[in-house]
Amino acid sequence: MDALCVRKNDLSLNELQDAGWEKADEGPSPYLQLETAERKRALERGISRLPDDQRFALVLCDLQGMSYDEAASAMECPVGTVKSRLNRARAALKNILSTDLELFSSLQRPNDERGKTK
């Protein structure tokens, strides 16, 4: 009998939705959205600081997915030059971003109740 009394006071999600209540957004938490946006901006700033030839190689190969041969054709240079520029670009970008990434890793991430931390 007590179980029936308790159940009588409970509302199901369907009942709440029928009453006009909306289910909470199940997407990433606002903190994770902010962190993703900040990382994207840091990456864009880092790429913009690269020398033109390195930036071009990085964008063509890593962002646009071109092969070394395709990038060499677009850049009008040998494949070996594309590879060396890409290697230098990645190393330079790693150095540029190291400060920003240290900042991110030192932040205390709040607990995400839904367990969707990345």
TrEMBL record:
Pfam families: Sigma70_r4_2. Signal peptide: none annotated. PANTHER family: RNA POLYMERASE ECF-TYPE SIGMA FACTO, RNA POLYMERASE SIGMA FACTOR HI_1459-RELATED. One of its GO terms (molecular function) is DNA binding. This is RNA polymerase sigma factor 70 region 4 type 2 domain-containing protein. GO terms for biological process: DNA-templated transcription initiation. It comes from bioreactor metagenome. CDD domains: Sigma70_r4 (cd06171). The keyword Transcription regulation applies. The keyword DNA-binding applies. Keywords: DNA-binding, Sigma factor, Transcription, Transcription regulation. InterPro entries: RNA_pol_sigma-70-like, RNA_pol_sigma-70_dom, RNA_pol_sigma70_r4_t2, RNA_pol_sigma_r3/r4-like, WH-like_DNA-bd_sf. Residues 41-93 form the RNA polymerase sigma factor 70 region 4 type domain.
